[in-house]
Design goal:
mainly alpha; Glycosyltransferase; 2 domains; two-stranded antiparallel ribbon; 20 helices; Squalene cyclase C-terminal domain-containing protein; Terpenoid_cyclase/PrenylTrfase; SQ_cyclase_C; metal-binding
C-alpha cells in the first residue's frame, strides 16, 4: 500500500474525536429508549421517544438486530408502547390507534422470536423474563381477547430474575441493569450514581430515580437524563460511556499496527492510575472487571508504561480466567486479552515469571480447546466470529509459542474460505469492521510464512476498506450489550489499524 488516504492524519483525527467525546459514539438504542418511555414518562422528550419507536419498527413488527438479537429490543419496545396506552388520565402523545397497532405487531413478532433459539446477550436470562412479565402484565390495555400472553423461550426460567430481585442485585455488576430489579431499586443506597449516572445506563438511572419526577430540578441524575435525551432528540444510547475500554482498546490496536507512541499517549492520560493492583471498569460507574483491566494493562505495556497485572489473579478459575465475579458464561476474548496482558508482563522477565508462564499455558490450552472445528472462535461480547478469531488468534500467536501453529493454520484457512467476492468478510453481510479484523489476522498470522493466496486476500480486503470503511456514518451493530450496538470510534480504529498494518 503506497497510495491512498493520509492514514496518519486520519489517526490523529480519530484520537482528537475520542478525547472530545467520552460517550463512545454509540448511536441510539431501542432498548434503552423504550425503557425511558416505560419508566420515566415525566422526562422531557417523551413524544420524541415514542415516535422513534414507531419509526424504527420493521415491517415484520420487530425492532433492531438480526435473527434472535431482535428479541430483547422488540420486547422492550412492545412493553413501552403498552405502557403508553395504559397511562391513566392521560392523552397518549401520539394517536392511540397507531400505538395499539404497533403494539399488536410487536407482540406478534415477539411471540415468533421467543419460539426461536436465543443468542447470548448481557444477562438475557434475566432481561427476557423481566420484559415478558412486563408485556403480559399490560396486555389488557389492548382490549383484545385474542392477545395471548407470551411464553418464555425454551429452557429459560425466571429463577435468576427472582434471585436478583431477592437481593442479588446488590452486587455492583447489577447497576448496569438496575431497571429489571423493581421497586427496591428506587433510591437504593447500594447504587451510588457517578456524575448522576447509575451503571452507565439511562434505563438504570431512570429506575433508580423512580416513577415520579424528582422535586429538585438540579438533581444530578435528572440533569443527566435531560441532557442525554436532549442530545439524542429524545433517544438515548446503549451506554453512557465506555471511555476506559475504548481508549485502551484503540491505543493497543493502533500501537501494534505501528502508530508511534507519542501519537497515542494522550489516550492513556485519563485512564485509572494503578490498574495493575486495582483494576479498571469499562467507564466510571461500571463495576470493575477483568476484560477492561487486561486491555488497559496491555495498552500501557505497548506504549512503554507497563504495570504488573497482579489484579487479574483474583479472576483465575483454574483452566481459564473469569470476566467478572460472579460469571454466568466464560469469555474467549476476555481470556485472550488476559493472555496478552500476562504475555506483555513476561517480556520484562519478572521475578515470578514461572507463575505467569503457567497461567499463559493454561489460558492458551483453554483457548485452543474453545476453537470451533472450522478454525474460528466466537464470544459473548461480540456477534461476529471475526472479532473473536482476531483476538484469540493474535494473542496465541504473540504469546503462546510454537504449540499453537497447527491451531492457527486452521484459522488462516477458515479466513481465506470465508472472504466474499467483493473482498469483504462478515457474518450476515460484508462489513468494514469484520473485514478489518480478518485483514489484521491474516497479516500477522502469515507474516513468517507468506503465501500468494493470503497476500491476494489481504489486498482485496484492503481495497474494500479503502472504498467502504473510511466514511461509515452508521456501522451495522455487532457488539453485544443488552442489545447489539456499534461503537463508532472502535470500528474506525479497527479499520485504520488494518490499513496501517498492511502499509507497514
Amino acid at each position: 500500500m503506497t497510495a491512498g488516504p493520509d492514514l496518519d492524519a486520519l489517526v490523529a483525527e480519530l484520537v482528537d474525536r475520542v478525547l472530545d467525546d467520552p460517550t463512545g459514539a454509540l448511536g441510539p438504542s431501542v432498548y434503552e429508549t423504550a425503557r425511558l418511555v416505560s419508566l420515566a414518562p415525566w422526562l422531557d422528550g417523551d413524544t420524541a421517544r415514542v415516535r422513534h419507536l414507531l419509526d424504527e419498527q420493521r415491517p415484520d413488527g420487530s425492532w433492531a438486530g438480526p435473527d434472535g438479537y431482535a428479541l430483547v429490543p422488540t420486547l422492550s419496545a412492545t412493553e413501552a408502547l403498552l405502557a403508553v396506552l395504559g397511562r391513566e388520565g392521560e392523552t397518549p402523545p401520539l394517536p392511540r390507534a397507531g400505538l395499539a397497532e404497533a403494539a399488536r405487531r410487536g407482540l406478534a413478532a415477539a411471540a415468533a422470536l421467543v419460539a426461536r433459539p436465543v443468542p447470548s446477550t448481557v444477562v438475557f436470562f434475566m432481561l427476557i423474563p423481566a420484559l415478558v412479565e412486563g408485556v403480559n402484565a399490560r396486555l389488557a390495555v389492548l382490549g383484545d381477547a385474542a392477545a395471548q400472553p407470551l411464553a418464555l423461550p425454551h429452557g429459560l426460567t425466571d429463577d435468576a430474575l427472582r434471585a436478583l430481585r431477592g437481593g442479588a442485585w446488590r452486587n455492583p455488576l447489577a447497576g448496569h441493569y438496575l431497571e429489571i430489579v423493581g421497586p427496591a431499586a428506587v433510591g437504593a443506597a447500594e447504587m451510588e450514581p457517578v456524575d448522576g449516572v447509575v451503571g452507565c445506563s439511562a434505563a438504570a438511572t431512570a429506575a433508580w430515580l423512580g416513577p415520579r419526577e424528582p422535586a429538585d430540578p438540579t438533581h444530578p441524575s435528572l440533569r443527566f437524563l435531560r441532557r442525554a435525551q436532549e442530545q439524542g432528540g429524545g433517544r438515548v444510547a446503549a451506554m453512557t460511556s465506555l471511555v476506559f475500554y475504548e481508549r485502551a482498546w484503540i491505543a493497543g490496536n493502533l500501537a501494534t499496527a505501528g502508530v508511534p507512541r507519542e501519537v497515542l499517549a494522550e489516550l492513556l492520560k485519563e485512564l485509572p492510575g494503578d490498574v495493575g493492583r486495582s483494576g479498571a471498569p469499562t467507564a466510571p460507574g461500571f463495576a470493575y472487571e477483568a476484560e477492561t483491566s487486561a486491555i488497559v494493562l496491555a495498552a500501557l505495556a505497548h506504549l512503554g508504561a507497563p504495570q504488573e497485572p497482579a489484579y487479574l489473579w483474583q479472576y483465575d478459575a483454574g483452566g481459564h480466567f473469569m470476566s467478572t465475579i460472579p460469571e454466568h458464561e466464560p469469555s474467549t476474548t476476555t481470556n485472550a486479552h488476559i493472555l496478552e496482558a500476562l504475555g506483555c508482563h513476561l517480556v520484562g522477565d519478572p521475578v515470578d515469571a514461572d507463575r505467569y508462564r503457567d497461567a499463559v499455558a493454561r489460558i492458551a490450552t483453554w483457548l485452543r480447546n474453545r476453537r470451533h472445528p472450522d478454525g474460528s472462535w466466537s464470544d459473548k461480547w461480540h456477534a461476529s466470529p471475526y472479532f473473536a478469531t482476531m483476538r484469540c488468534a493474535l494473542a496465541l500467536h504473540r504469546y503462546a509459542g510454537p504449540d499453537t501453529a497447527d491451531t492457527l493454520r486452521g484459522s488462516v484457512a477458515w479466513l481465506l474460505e470465508q472472504q466474499r467476492e467483493d473482498g469483504s468478510w462478515g457474518r450476515w453481510e460484508g462489513t468494514a469492521e469484520e473485514t478489518a479484523y480478518a485483514v489484521r489476522t491474516l497479516l500477522e498470522l502469515t507474516a513468517d510464512t507468506p503465501s500468494e493466496q493470503a497476500a491476494e486476500a489481504v489486498q482485496r480486503g484492503c481495497a474494500f476498506l479503502l472504498e467502504h470503511g473510511l466514511n461509515v456514518e452508521r456501522h451495522p451493530p455487532l457488539w453485544i450489550g443488552k442489545e447489539l450496538y456499534a461503537p463508532a470510534h472502535l470500528v474506525r480504529a479497527a479499520v485504520l489499524g488494518a490499513l496501517l498494518a498492511a502499509r507497514r
